[in-house]
Design goal:
about 300 residues; about 40% helix; five-stranded mixed β-sheet; alpha+beta; three-stranded antiparallel β-sheet
Length: about 300
């Protein structure tokens, strides 16, 4: 063995230390896997990287942690979204108002969208409204149809949650050009609260709410073993609570949750808050507003 150590340029002591280190690491694997299991109980589709950054466990680096998770079968499956939920109307009354805007507080930009959930060969439609600055879901509704009244119920929830009667045109409501958002009843409710109306041309201009839709549906609802409409309603309520209260966002300072961030804003002067900047590009003589909603810290 001495000749073998010499041939490999190591000492017997170094070899023993390496073996001891490997044994210690192997002994920690159940602990690391337990962390994954623990957080997946709350967030069933949270990625390995986010799990590592949440716990930052001693004794293992991020890449090694991810590799270990993959090796033991904790890699998430790819997901797709084949169902169409937007039926646009030729509405030229409302333009995309987000070009060149900067936001430094909640209640300056709300975004809304519709997604679907398949249950026993029937589609149900989920409407969400999110405060884009804090990423907080402030309104939602579930129905078996896509009528405008469902969007109105979600909007009324958001208005009740915020408790402000007059936004004095300081708040922009942003959505696609779906017929529900262009309906007289919906736009009248916004106008009654002096909320400016903004509409985009494609899904890429409403990126944050699209991403949130996927998170609620794929990271939570599909793991709840939902079998009835009542269970779906309860599942959405649970998922929204967890999303607002427990889900950390890399784009928010110190990876805060939406609720934590809104509490933080109560004591942080506007001059020291991160700016939510929105950029636009012009191509082929067509305005294509691309949401680049990033925090410039």
């Amino acid at each position: 063995m001495t000749d073998l150590y010499t041939l490999n340029g190591i000492s017997k002591q170094a070899h023993a230390q390496a073996l001891a280190y490997e044994r210690r690491q192997a002994g920690k694997i159940p602990f690391y896997l337990g962390l994954i299991e623990e957080l997946r109980e709350l967030h069933p589709s949270i990625g390995l990287r986010n799990i590592y950054e949440t716990y930052q466990p001693d004794g293992i680096g991020r890449d090694a942690f991810i590799d270990m998770g993959k090796r033991y079968g904790y890699m998430l499956e790819e997901r797709s979204n084949p169902i169409r939920t937007t039926y646009s109307v030729k509405c030229h009354r409302f333009k995309n108002l987000l070009a060149g805007k900067e936001f430094t507080d909640v209640n300056q930009l709300w975004s809304s969208d519709i997604t679907y959930y398949s249950l026993a060969e029937q589609f149900f439609y989920l409407v969400f409204i999110m405060d884009v600055y804090s990423r907080k879901i402030i309104g939602y509704n579930i129905a078996d149809n896509m009528r405008a009244e469902n969007n109105i119920l979600a909007l009324r929830m958001a208005l009740t949650h915020r408790g402000i009667d007059n936004y004095r045109n300081q708040l922009i409501h942003h959505s696609d050009k779906g017929s529900q958002y262009a309906s007289d009843a919906y736009t009248e409710l916004l106008s009654n609260h002096n909320i400016s109306i903004s509409m985009c041309l494609n899904v890429y201009e409403n990126a944050h709410i699209e991403r949130m839709n996927g998170t609620i549906k794929n990271d939570y609802l599909k793991h709840y073993n939902i079998k009835t409409f009542k269970e779906l309603t309860e599942g959405v309520k649970k998922a929204v609570h967890i999303y607002n209260q427990n889900r950390k966002h890399q784009s928010l300072p110190n990876r805060m949750t939406p609720n934590q961030f809104e509490t933080y804003l109560l004591t942080e002067p506007s001059s020291q808050r991160p700016n939510l900047s929105i950029y636009t590009t012009k191509k082929n003589e067509q305005i294509t507003n691309q949401l680049s909603l990033t925090f410039a810290l």
